Structures are given as C-alpha cells and as structure tokens.
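Journal club side-thread
Mid-discussion, someone asked how the predicted structure for our own chain would compare to the paper's figures. Pasting it here so we can look after the session.
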Amino acid sequence: MTRREKENLRTGLLFISPWIAGFLLLSVYPLVATLYYSLSDYSVLSPAVFVGLENYRNLATDPIFWKSVYNTFFFAAFALPLGLLVSLTLAILLNFDLPGRGIFRTVFFLPTLMPMVCLAVLWQWMLNGDLGLINNALRPPLDAVNALFGTNLTPPNWLQEPVYAKWGIIFTALWGVGQAVVIYLAGLQDVPRHLYESAEIDGANFWKKTWHITLPMISPVIYFNLIMGLIGSFQVFAVPYVMTEGGDGPERSLLFMATYLYQNAFDYWSMGYACAIGLVLFLVILGLTLLATGLSARHVHYEGN
C-alpha cells in the first residue's frame, strides 16, 4: 500500500470506529456471553459455575420448554402467512387511485404507532368472553344459526380456553400489519406502468396482471417482509405477557419461547438456563431465515437480474 492508501485506510477506519465499537459491544459480546453463560450455572447474584452441556440436556427433557416451542411454532405458522396475505392485499387495494386513499392508508398505519402494552390491554378487552366487542359481534349470527338448526353455539372465551387462546393472539398480531402495508406500497410505486399497459393490450385481467407482473416485481419486498415477520413472530412476548398477566395463559397455551426465557431469567433467576433457551431461539430463527432465503432465491427478482 502506498502512503496515500494507508492514510485513506486509517481515515476510513477512524470514521467507522463508532460503528465497529457498537457492533463489538452490543452484538458480538452479548452473543459470546450468552454462549458462555448457557454452559454455566449462573443466577446473576453469584459467580457463574461452568457445567458444560447440562443446561441443554435439561432443555431436551423439559416438557415446559417443548410446550413453549410448540406454541411458538404454531403462532408463527399461522400469524406469519396471514400477516403477509392481509398486508399485501391491503397494499394492492390501497394502490388504486380511489377517493380518500390517503385517509385509508393513514387509518391502517395508525395501529402500528400504538405501544405494545396499550395494544395488549385494548385487545384483552376486545377478546373478553362476556363484554368483548368481537363476541358481541359474533352473538347475533350464532343466535340465528342456533334458532335455525337447534344448536347451542356460543362465542368462545378467547383468553380463557386453551383451544382459542393462541388464535386470539394471532388476531391481535394482524392489527399491526400497517407497517408492512407501507413497505408494500413503496414497492408497488416502483412497478413500471408500461408493463401493465402491455398486459392490458394482450388481454390480461386483474388477476393475471397481479400474478405475472405485480408479485414478481415486488418479490424483494415480499422477501423482506417475510424475513422481518419471521423474526418478529418467533420473538413474540409483550402482548401475550400483558394480556395474561404473566404470559402462560390457560394450561400454558400462551407460553412462548421468549416468555419462558424471561421467566427463567427474571422470575427463577436461572440465567444460565435462560441463556441456553435464548441461544436455541437464535439458532432456530437463523436456521429458518437461511432456509427461507434458500427456498426463495429463484423466486426473488431484483432489478437488473
């Protein structure tokens, strides 16, 4: 390297040194510390004692942990695709040049500005079995069905019955699709108009234009929302924790991996065990992200490719 190149390198490293320091302190160190403490018996109040893979062996035989894993995967398996479908549908509808479009865009985005605790309290009342808005809307059609067929159908007690508890949290998650809608709308603005005009000349209808033009052109945006939704759905914590005043729910039907991690760390003071759960959760998210990236590689079309 010439003297000039060395000076440029030194100057460049100096400018990015705050980012490097932040990356090392806030990303690399926590990950390494988590790995170390996951191999230790650590309660925060006393020094860590190295125990090897004992925490992971306990995880393998912990039925509560596996219950949290099942609940987390169940939530992600339904909340993620439903969120992608609803947000994409709303974005396509809001992309039409209709009167009041700006108002509707604002209305769908506003719920994302609500703090998680307020969101949880709001939906806790909406899902209330006796006084909730959702059940009050369900009673008239159910009463009509009961009168017609002689059945005895009643609205579910969403947060008190294990069968319906996770579905209540899934419906709550759909409340926050406004952020993904805005991202989709930004992607839809970049779709060239002449592609639609050419398709219309060839006789393509709305569905064919959506399938063959819109979706391929915004595939990078779909992929981005997929990955962000995947990460968020496996880290669900605040809403079920507040709604159930502890995060378990009936028969632990709302105990997610993030909640179980929190309980072990701050309720039971078993920080080493909590770090093991956290590392497993990290590996699960990383593995699913890599899997989604590999499976979607040939379906995501970037500009110029």
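Post-session note: The beta strands are 40-41, 49-50.
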